[in-house]
Write a structure and sequence with these properties.
The complex is a heterodimer. By secondary structure, chain A is an alpha/beta fold. Chain A is 28% helix and 28% strand. In chain A, a hairpin with a 2-residue loop joins strand 10 and strand 11. The longest helix of chain B is centred in the first third of the chain and has 17 residues, at 18-34. By secondary structure, chain B is of the alpha/beta class. Chain B is globular, with a radius of gyration of 21 Å. Chain B folds into two domains: 5-188, HUPs (Rossmann fold), CATH 3.40.50.620; 206-329, Rossmann fold, CATH 3.40.50. In chain B, helix 2 (75-89) crosses helix 3 (100-113) and helix 4 runs parallel beside helix 7 (313-329). Classes of the chains: A alpha/beta, B alpha/beta. At the A-B interface, helix 3, helix 4, strand 9, strand 10 and strand 11 of A face helix 2, helix 3, strand 7, strand 9 and strand 10 of B. Strand 15 of chain A pairs parallel with strand 18 of chain B, so a sheet runs across the interface.
Amino acid sequence: MNSIVCLKQVPDTEALIRVKSDGSEVVLDNVKFIINPYDEFGIEEALLQKEKSGSGSVTLVCLGPQRCVESIRTGLAMGADKAVHLDDSAFEGSDALSTAKSLAAQIKSMEYDIIFCGRQAIDDDQAQVGVALAEYLNLPHAALVTKVEVADDKKSITVNRQIVGGEEIIEMPVPCVITAQKGLNEPRYASLPGIMKAKKKELKPVKVADIGLDANEVGATGSKTISLNYSSPPARTAAKIIGGESPEEKAKNLAKALREEAKAI
Amino acid sequence: MGKGILVFAEQEEGKVRKVTFEILSEAKKIADKKGEQLCAVCLGKDIAGLGDKFAPYGADKVYLVDHETLGQYTSDAYAKALTDLIIKEQPSIVLFGATINGKDLSAKVAARVSAGLASDCTEMKLDDSGNFCVRRPIYAGKVLADVGFQNTDIIMASIRPNVLIASEPDTSKTAEIESIIPEISADNIKVKVLEVVKASAGKVDLTEAEIIVSGGRGMKGPENYKMLDELAEVIGATVGASRAAVDAGWKDISDQVGQTGKVVSPNLYIACGISGAIQHYAGMGTSKVIVAINKDEEAPIFSKCDYGVVDDLFRIIPPLTEELKKMMAD
């Protein structure tokens, strides 16, 4: 199986994110960056499928600034074979659909059976790129996938995906796009030999012109959504602590507060 | 430039999702300000009976797109039917519920018709110049972004369920109903649904629940969730879990609330034995009322919730359930 995994670098889930006082931008100084956790499930699944089939390759494709190289190397250290890095200042400010369009422009010249994406990136939380990428490449997709089975003839796959109130099992032909949901697998850690090997693996930088797009078609100018302002959500104040002599009394006081004061029940 | 606001009215097995009414109610105000029509489009199989559901919330016109391939949601069939309608009617704004299907469909259709799309929005409005804009949480709710649109004839947005308020339905209102038989052929559908497995019939999904009772590490084991099930039963709640409880294997991943689980926004969120890590808060911080029950008075959740009970949850929940049972009976 030949797989492509789209990888985004995002701030760590623990990171404290601040907004510049004039609301013009989100401050990411001193923030630790990681591979988007859902993309990590994608990398793991691509590696598992390659191991299972006994042949093929796993190629990472990442769009983002220079700092992303660290995350790409981590993905290579996990076991991916090579990587393409769409790194051009023209991409700055790309919204989700513009990002998907650039990824599609890169991927259309590559060989693959399955493209893995995370179900969403945990910074912008749009959940658009995987689905839109499939559309731009005119491929079928399945979102929120928790299990992948490749058919013996490798011409189709069966996946389990999350739906409201349960899951469904669907079949689709390859090539196709999968967006990975938590539960798909347990991503491996990069081993020390893996980290050493990763340094020598191919990491190809790509500019806008290389994928046949004009600089005006990508980045903030090529995007159809623009961020106008950023703000911090209103802070919730400390809890009103419900008192009482006994657990029973506390329970009673809480029930009363919920009905009479909060009017929530 | 197109005209009119089109709302994707999501239904499942003939039942319209509540978020549809929430969106219609708010979109009506915007349509009135713009002096444009508000339309609802409902896709499904044998849905003629749903035609009168949308006018009470402000829809001027209802499109019923009925086809045997639309009985079960697939991105392929739904995107084909919706795209054809959008191309024909040229709406200026298309709105979806930010549900699993709504997010899937909106991304596919936006890419197909070259629209601008903002997902999982919590507010929408016209700015002072009359431009449509939205507010959406990013970084799992740590930041709010105000988003505008440019270079596009069609604006699309998906709206988080349970955030906008549905107006009181006015059943005296009627809408023009147009039935559409879509052109969907086998070639349009590349994916095949083999099987649908429902976790438990009739259970309200966490993302749509009005009340959520959630249990974390403090629950000590899967057997103790029965206590939360009983409390949930009494107040009509859905049971959720923290990442710690899911990672321990006590609850299913579909029950997880938080940054890497579901983002929820109920009227009431009762967190039992949950410390309130930043990732958990990211998934439930927009709940209207948050209650924490935790024996550790230093738990971070007490610094950002509305009501706190510092005590052993095993000693609080049974009498709380009893107390609420009495109250609900009144």
